[in-house]
Write a structure and sequence with these properties.
15 helices; Rossmann fold; elongated; six-stranded parallel beta sheet; binds thiamine diphosphate; 388 residues; disordered C terminus; alpha/beta; single chain
Length: 388
């Protein structure tokens, strides 16, 4: 059964919800876009699930009923504010949690396995009552009424949503509040330019979602470590490698949503100052891997933040020439460097999953071999087969 997000929003409003925040998941269809243009609901696109919940707590304190939408991978990011803010202060909030890796469903990507199997148990441990949504309007109303019972006890409530249960409204996916910018470079083009500047020995750690999948499509090398979960932690992993291996050049390939989620890491990197580290951010001003919901990078200058945090240089690029020049300069001078490149939202039609060829463990092993046995500099990483 599938419920349109228009109906879901109507039911939330009927129950007097007036404030929405969250971090997207593709299972929410166009819910985030719809809420962002709905005049009856104040909506905040949060950088992390923990801050989404905290915005909602603030709104609840100010007398507005609040909904927080998140993927179950984000449960890890809300456990602290759930336990020590929401529960301790008895501030009831409605959680709309999309469950990836549900135990009853065909196998999902490996990064969802553990959280998928433990979502219900984690909520139980946190003493948060929950209900699985059945995909019908009546079912959604029924779980909203169950939430009312929890709220009367000042307890929060979680509604669990599965893949395919929500669909875009009758007019198709609506646009969000911000017009989508159309920058000249696609992620694929930007990655080709970055690839041309890399030596075969250079190590790359790539972020969760389409950026890793594009990198895998274009240039699968054992020097690539593809992050497939842990959104926002790619630069810390890459900087950790760089600090432990000062003789190797290490590149983090990041997304704007990922950087925003754990932006404090920029200060840590500036402080630790790995000289052999280049942080490249492909900024499409949205969460494109989950459906193009807007991020807040359109009103932020991430390169200015990086510079203020102690990176030795930070550049914003719009064109291929600017990107090629910035990456070449960053790789040949002492870092840490920050290169932000604005990109559009187009991707290759067939974007293979890394797991179609390598399990996460195989990827880790290949990367460790690349670290311990660097290939000779004259070997060209031209094709997937040759590069592995
Ligand atoms: C903690 C957490 N929250 C949410 C998600 C769902 N998710 C996967 S990829 C992604 C979008 C990342 O956006 P960005 O870094 O800007 O890269 P883009 O998809 O735009 O290339 C999101 C929200 C997740 N994997 N982990």
């Amino acid at each position: 059964m599938t419920l349109s997000t228009t109906i879901l929003l109507g039911l939330l409003k009927q129950q007097k919800y007036e404030f929405f925040s969250g971090v997207p998941c593709s299972n929410f269809a166009d819910l985030f876009q719809q809420v962002s243009v709905d005049d009856d609901i104040v909506s905040v696109p949060a950088a992390s699930e923990g801050s989404a919940l905290s915005f909602a707590v603030g709104a609840t304190l100010a007398g507005r009923r609040s909904v927080v939408a998140l993927q179950n991978s984000g449960l890890g990011n809300i456990i602290n504010p759930l336990a020590s803010l929401v529960q301790v202060n008895c501030i009831p909030t409605l959680l709309l949690i999309s469950v990836r890796g549900h135990a009853d469903e065909p196998e999902d990507e490996p990064q969802h396995r553990i959280m998928g199997a433990n979502t219900h148990a984690l909520l139980d441990q946190l003493a948060i009552p929950w209900s699985e949504f059945d995909g019908t309007p009546q079912g959604f109303m029924a779980v909203l009424l169950k939430a009312e019972e929890a709220f009367e006890r000042s307890v929060s409530f979680a509604i669990l949503v599965r893949k395919g249960q929500l669909s875009a409204g009758p007019g198709g996916v609506v646009n969000g509040k911000q017009p989508v910018s159309d920058y000249p470079l696609s992620v694929g083009c930007a990655l080709e330019i970055v690839g041309e500047a890399l030596q075969p020995t250079d190590l790359v750690v790539s972020t969760t979602g389409f950026i890793s999948r594009e990198l895998f499509r274009l240039s699968d090398r054992r020097e690539n470590f593809y992050m497939q979960g842990s959104l926002g932690h790619c630069s810390a992993v890459a900087a950790g490698v760089a600090l432990a291996h000062p003789s190797r050049r290490v590149v983090a390939l990041d997304g704007d949503g990922a950087v925003l989620m754990h932006m404090g890491v920029l200060s840590t990197i500036g402080y630790a100052s790995p000289r052999n580290f280049v942080h490249i951010v492909l900024d499409n001003e949205g969460y494109v891997s989950t459906g193009g919901q807007e991020s807040t990078s359109v009103t932020s200058s991430l390169e200015a933040v990086a510079l203020a945090c102690g990176y030795s240089a930070a550049t914003r690029c719009l064109t291929g020439a600017e990107l090629g020049e910035a990456v070449a300069r960053s790789l040949s001078t002492e870092g840490p460097h920050f290169v932000l490149c604005k990109v559009n939202r187009s991707h290759s039609r067939s974007l293979p999953r890394v797991t179609s060829l390598h399990s996460p463990e195989e990827n880790k092993q290949a990367f460790q071999i690349a670290l311990s046995q660097p290939r000779a500099l004259h070997v060209q990483a031209s094709s997937a087969g040759a590069a592995r």
